[in-house]
Structure formats: structure tokens, C-alpha cells
Amino acid sequence: MANKNSNSKLTILMRHHPGEAQLETAAIDAWNSQLTYAELNNLPWSFGAYLDSYGVGPEVFVPLCLERSSWVPLAMLSVLIAGGAFVLLDALHPIQRMKEVCSTVKATLIVTSKGNIANVAKLGLQMILTDDMAVWSKENGILKAKVKPTNAAYAMFTPGRTGTPKWVVLEHRSYSTSALAHSSATDMQSGSRVLDFASYAFDGSIIGTSTALIMGRCVCIPSEVDRKRDLAGASRQLGVTWAIITYLSA
């Protein structure tokens, strides 16, 4: 049950309660771009309004199929702001696996990038491209949807490339409360630089990123190549101080 003394909408927490971060503090430090909290308070709202114009709203599930970059947390926030629920897809998974996930959540559109068009087109869904910033950045951020604490925030599927995927849905109230608790329980302190490491097929990728942004920390995103081949070097370069990783990667 959500804590009645705290705001139970994840999107409002992210916009109005950035922990101890100032607007010019780094929110995302990725291999492809860097964003401050000031930028994070604007870009997702424009993209969210763009998604809203395509019918994204409460209980509408939107798959995200993106390469590891700053666009992943931006897209996550944008879907939440539009009132929808996001579903992270691993772009390296077989197309049949992705089809099963999209069919299960009854998706009609998908957020992706130009680099993934050839593969994502096989899903038969309407594609919304993060690369079309010249188009969606003109949106004024005014939304029609009214998000409730009981609305879905995201869906997570069991990992694996084969078999029928099983899934669970987390509501805004459930995750906003648990994210605040995660920060204290995992010693995510002021100034922590949080590594984005886990596969997007695992909920660890969502826990670390969302908790960091709610608490005003910095999310550090290495390229997929560095994540697999030079995690230690990439972590040093990004100044990582906090991470959720497996013992095999430590």
C-alpha cells in the first residue's frame, strides 16, 4: 500500500521532488549525451504530450525498443507523463519473443529509434521515433490524461528468449513508495552516480534508474559495447559510485 504521507504518483515525484539536486545538476551522463535536471523537466513533457496525441494514456502499454542510451530513461518518463505504462524490450531478443510481449500487453504502437527500424517494423506496430525531436519537441507539454495512483506504471516480463512470457504490472503508488525506500535501503546518497547496467529484460534496470531520478542522483549509461567488454573502464570514465550488478560482473 502506498504511503499516504508521500506523493503516490511516480511522474509527479520525478518532476517536483528531485531530492537534493539543483536544476543544473547532472541527471543523466550517457555515452551519447548529458542531461541536467532542468532539461529532464522539459524534454519528457514534450515527448509525453506527443505520445498523448497518439492515444497514450492510462492503462495503455507502450513497448520501448531502444539501444542503451540517454533515450531509454527519457522514453520511460515520457510514457509515464502521458499517463501510459512502459514495457522495456531487449532489442537483442528474437523478434518472436518481442511479438509475444507486445501481443500480451495489446500494444498498438512502439517507441524506438532509427537504428532499430528494420527489426521493429516486423512487429507490425505504429512506430514513434525518438530521433524525430524536431517534430515532438514543439509540443507544449499540455496533457489530456489524468493519471491516478492506481494506474499502471510499467509491466515487467520474465527473462528468457523462449517459452510463454509471464508478466507483472506495477502501479504508480506501488513503485513510487518502493523507489523511495530503495534509496535508503541501498545507501543511494546525495551525489551518487548510478550505473545503468542491467539488461532491459530485468527489473533491476528500472529500479536503479527510476530511484536515482526520483532522488535527484545521476544515472550513468555506458554504451552496450563498453557494458559488455570494458565495464570497469567505462565505470571509471563515468565516475560511477553506485551500481546493481551480478557477482560475475563485479
From TrEMBL:
Q: Does the keyword RNA-binding apply?
A: no
Q: Which domain of life is it from?
A: Eukaryota
**Keywords in UniProt for this one?**
Membrane, Transmembrane, Transmembrane helix
The chain positions of domain AMP-dependent synthetase/ligase read 25-243
GO MF terms here are:
phosphopantetheine binding
Q: Name one GO cellular component term.
A: cytoplasm
Where exactly are the transmembrane stretches of this chain? Answer: 71-89
One Gene Ontology term from the biological process aspect of the record: amino acid activation for nonribosomal peptide biosynthetic process
**What InterPro entries does the annotation carry?**
AMP-dep_synth/lig_dom
This protein's record includes keyword Phosphoprotein: no
Note the Pfam families from the entry.
Answer: AMP-binding
**Family annotation (PANTHER family):** NONRIBOSOMAL PEPTIDE SYNTHETASE, NONRIBOSOMAL PEPTIDE SYNTHETASE IVOA
User: Which protein is depicted?
Assistant: Nonribosomal peptide synthetase 12
